Amino acid sequence: MLIPAQNRTTPDLLGRLKAYEGQAAATGAAGKDPVNAAMIRHWCEAMGHAVPEDGAAPAAMLQVWTMGGLSGHGGGGGGGGARTPAYEELLALLDEAGCTSVVATDSEQEYVRPLRPGERISFDTVIESVSARKTTKLGAGHFVTTRTEIRTEIRTAAQGGELVGTHRFRILKYAPAPQKSAGPGRPRPVVNRDNAGYWEGVRDHRLLIQRCTDCGALRLPWLPGCDACGSPGWDTVQAGGAGVVHSYVVMHHPPFPAFEPPYAVALVELAEGVRVLGNVVGVAHEKVRIGMGVGLEFLRVDEDMTVPVFRPEV
After folding, report:
1. CA-CA distance, 279 to 182, in Å (whole number)?
2. Spatial CB neighbours of 176, under 8 Å, sequence gap ≥ 6
3. Residues 280, 292: Cα–Cα separation, whole Å
């Protein structure tokens, strides 16, 4: 198969991409708001965690304080707002090479200390690495990794800021692979070695929940290790199928040919205490409510895919 010239990576192009390593993607960006109790409370409620007794922000909230929201950071740079010219040039160069699509692939965070209400943060981001061209199921492209150092706000040039955490973020800029089917099929779940057993269970009409063999904590979606104690040991328990709608969204836009909007997608809390996403079927979308009791069913989408869905209890 011939690959269009703009979709190839030549040694010259790779050298140009590599030249951006070490350059700034954002400099001197500042958090839009100080660390505050209201945001800590909202985040904890959304995540199902108790608010820390000492009032400090949970460490995993680190990225929250860097976000610019819909309006971005204006001239501050980075973190979802304005970017440096070097980062814009890198993305443009990848676009020119045919890598016009983008997907976030993974994120790593390191925590130095928790932030407390009233503190403000600043952050700088550097382009850490640009990979050689890689072929994935989505298509061929380049992984771009950035590293953000988050500090308490610099008050004076002499004082500097205290490092509170580091955020490493990786995206794939890629040229979409040709679709195998002519029709607009339903999107496929990403199946890998960490979750293959889950999808095998769904295929057999069994919703399997991981259980840590050390501390007994249940987890869904599946993870390679326990998020409660860190143990890699696990077995499974089968969900009974009863649950309640914990939260939901009604999808209107953007339209996708494999679905017929509007339709309701719910975060269902199972009787076992874990939560799972699924469509709510058998009821009009405007009838879905938080707290509604639902039961598990399995929908065969096609010969290769079955998905869990939920039907309201009668």
Report:
1. 25
2. 100, 101, 138, 139
3. 11
Q: Is 10 exposed, middle or buried (0-12, 13-18, 19+ CB in 10 A)?
A: exposed
Distance between CA 151 and CA 164 in Å, rounded?
5
Instruction: Give one DSSP letter per residue of 59-127, joined into a string.
Output: GGGGGGGG--TTTTTTTS-STTS---HHHHHHHHHHHHTT--EEEEEEEEEEESS---TT--EEEEEEE
Write the pLDDT tens digit of every residue in 13-62.
Answer: 999 999 999 999 988 888 889 999 999 999 999 888 889 999 999 999 99
Decide if domain 241-314 falls under CATH 3.40.50.150: no
Domain ranges of the chain: 5-176, 191-238, 241-314
Mean pLDDT of 90-101: 95
Count of alpha carbons within 13 Å of 300, Cβ hemisphere only?
A: 6
First and final CA of the chain: distance in angstroms? 55
Residue 202's H or E segment, with its range, is: helix 196-203
Q: What is the pLDDT of residues 136-185, one digit of tens each?
A: 988 999 999 999 999 997 654 555 589 999 999 999 999 988 765 545 67
Task: Give the CATH class of 5-176.
Answer: alpha beta
For 189-216, how does the pLDDT look when each residue is reduced to its tens digit (9 = 90+)? 888 889 999 999 999 999 999 999 999 9
